[in-house]
Amino acid sequence: DCSMGNSKYEYVKNFEADDRLPPSNWIVVRIHGCDFHSFSSIHEFEKPNDSNAASLMNSCASSLLEKFPEIVFAYGVSDEYSFVLSEESEFCERQASEIVSSFVSYFGSAYVMKWKEFLPDKDLKEVPYFKGRAVCCPKAKIVRDYLACRQFDCHVNNQYNTCFWMLIKSGKTETEAQLCLKDTQEKEKNEMLFQQFGINYDKLPEMFKKGSCVFRNKVEEIVKLDEGGNPVKMSYEIVTVDHVDIIGPRFWDEHPYILH
Ligand code: ATP
Ligand code: ATP
C-alpha cells in the first residue's frame, strides 16, 4: 500500500479528480448504445422496431432497479435508457464517474447475459457497449420535464422511422425516403402511413409510441383475516415495466411517491 509511511509516491493521489455531484439534486444518468446503428443491422433487428431487442433493453433496466434501490424511475427507448436517482441518494458518494460507470457496466453485462433469453435464434456476434452521462436536476419539476422531453422525442422519432422504413420496404432508396419525408408535419406523416400503407399510427404498439417506463409499483395483498374477520394487508413493491404517458400529470398523480 503506497499510503503506508507517507511514501514518496503518495502525492499521485492528488491527481485524482473529485467529481461529486452537488447535494439535494436529482441525478439522471442517461446511457445509450454505441454504434447501435451497425449493431442492430449486424444482428438483423427488425426495422423500425425489433420488439425482442426492446424487451431485452427493458429487462436490463429492470435488473438495474432490482440491483440499485436508489434508482426511483427509468425511461427507455431505442438504444437509450435514463435512470433517475433520488435527490438524497449517496450512491457512490455522488461521484459522477463512479455512478455512470457502475450503471453502464451493469447494463452492458446484463445485456450480454440476457441476450439468449430474448433473442434465442441469434448469435451475439459483436460486443455491445454503452456510454453514459449524469445530469443534475435541482427540482423534481425539471426531472419531469427532462422525461417529457425524452418521451416527446420518442414519439417524433418513431413516427419518422415508421414512415422511413415503410418507404424502404416499398422499394425506395434511403435518399428517396429521406426526400419524401423532408419537412413533413406530423399530420402528413400519419396520412402517408394510412393512405399509402394502410397503417393507423394510433394502433401501433404502445411500447414503440411511448417508450418504456420502469418503476416500483406499490402492491397491496390480503395475506390473511384477523380474529375479527378483517383483512390483514401486506404491501410490497414490484419493479414494473409500463408504456404510459409521462408528459401529462396523470401518471405522476397516481404515483406520487416516485418524484416526491
Ligand atoms: P452512436 O454510437 O453515436 O450513439 P449509433 O450507431 O448508436 O450512434 P443512434 O443514433 O444512437 O446510432 O441510433 C441507434 C440505432 O439503433 C438506430 O439505428 C436504431 O434504429 C437502432 N435500434 C435501437 N434499438 C432498436 C430496436 N429495438 N429495433 C430496431 N433498431 C433499433
Ligand atoms: P467496492 O465495490 O467498494 O469496489 P469491492 O468488493 O470491489 O468493493 P475492493 O476493495 O475493490 O472490494 O477489493 C477487491 C476484492 O477483490 C479484494 O477482496 C480482492 O482480494 C479481490 N480480488 C480482486 N482480484 C482478485 C484475484 N485475481 N484473485 C483473488 N481475489 C481478487
What does this structure look like?
The protein is of the alpha+beta class. It has a domain at 18-151: tRNA(His) guanylyltransferase (Thg1) (Alpha-Beta Plaits, 2-Layer Sandwich), CATH 3.30.70.3000. 41% of the residues lie in helices and 21% in strands. The protein is built from eight helices and six strands. It has a six-stranded antiparallel β-sheet with strand order 4-1-3-2-5-6, sandwiched between helices. A hairpin with a 2-residue loop joins β2 and β3. α2 (51-67) packs across α3 and α4 (140-169) crosses α5 (174-181). The longest helix has 30 residues, at 140-169. The chain binds adenosine-5'-triphosphate (2 copies).
Concise summary:
41% of the residues lie in helices and 21% in strands. The chain is α+β, with helices and mostly antiparallel strands.
Topology record:
Blueprint (H helix, E strand, L loop, with lengths): L25 E8 L2 H7 L8 H17 L3 E7 L2 E6 L10 H23 L11 E8 L2 H30 L4 H8 L4 H12 L8 H5 L1 E14 L5 E12 L7 H5 L6
Antiparallel strand pairs: 1-3, 1-4, 2-3, 2-5, 5-6
Helix pairs in contact: 2-3, 4-5, 4-6
The site of one adenosine-5'-triphosphate has 15 residues, from strand 1, helix 1 and helix 2.
Cofactor: Mg(2+)
Main location: nucleus
Family: Belongs to the tRNA(His) guanylyltransferase family.
